[in-house]
# Entry
Amino acid sequence: MTAAGVPNPRTTRQGDQAINPLGGRPVKVPYASWFLRSSVLLPLLVASAFLLTWDGIVRLSGSELFPKPLDVWWGLGELVKKGLLLKYVVASLFRVTWGFTLAVLVGVPFGLLLGWSRYAQEAFNPLIQAFRPISPIAWIPLAILWFGISDAAPIFLIFLASVFPILVSSAAAVKSVPTVYLRVAQNFGLTRSQLVWRVILPATLPQILTGLRITLGVAWLVVVAAEMIAVNSGLGYLIIDARNAGKRYDLVVAGMVVIGLIGWLLDLLMRLAERFQALKWAYGIRHE
# Structure
C-alpha cells in the first residue's frame, strides 16, 4: 500500500510487469533478473549436477572407453571443424521433413474421413490395425530391397512410423467433436464443405496438432535407427561409424547429445505452434 492508501502496483506481478490497478500501461517491476528465474535457473542447476555426476562416475570407474563430458565437447568441436556435424544434421532433418510431411498429407485427410464416415472406418480399420503394430524397424530389410541405400529408404520408414499415429489421432479428433457444434451448423444451413472447413477442421485442429507433436518425436527416433543401417550419412550413421572406426565413443556420445538437442528443439517448435491464438480456446490449461 502507498501512503495514500492506494494499492501499490508493484505488488501484483505478471511475468516481467505488474498489473496497474489504476489502469493504463503495466508497470515495470525491478525484481530478479532473467537468469535467476526458476524456469532458467532450475534446468541449469539440474544440467550442471548431471554433468558433474557423469564426470565423477567416469573418473571413479577408471574407464578409458567411456568419455567424460569434456571429451564429448572436444569431439563436437572436431566434428564441426571437419564439417561433418552440419552435413549429418542436414541429412537427418531432410529425411524427417520429407517422411513426416508425406505422412501428414496422407494421414490427416484420411483420418478425418475415417472419423466422419462409418463406412470408411468399417472398410479400412481392420487393415490399419493390422499394419499399425508392425515396428518400422521390421520394414528395414524390405526398404533396402525396394529402395537400396538411398534417402528413399529412411523416408519410407519415417512415413510408416508417422502415418498410423496421425491417422488414429485425426479420426479420434473428429469423433470427439461435440454434437452441439454439428446441430448448430445444421440450423444455420451450412453445406457439407462449409461444415468441414468452418466446424470440423477448427474443432479438431488442436487435437490433431497434439498428435503431430507426439508423432514428430517418433519420426526423429526412427530416422536415427534407420540411418544406422539403411544409409551412409546422417546422425545415426555418425554414431555407428564412430563406434566401428576406432571405437570413438566420444563421437558416439556427441552424436547422441546432438540428437537429443534437436529432438528437444523440434518439440519446442510444436509447442510454440500450440500457442497460436486460433488454438488456445481448445486448451483448458495454460501452456507453460
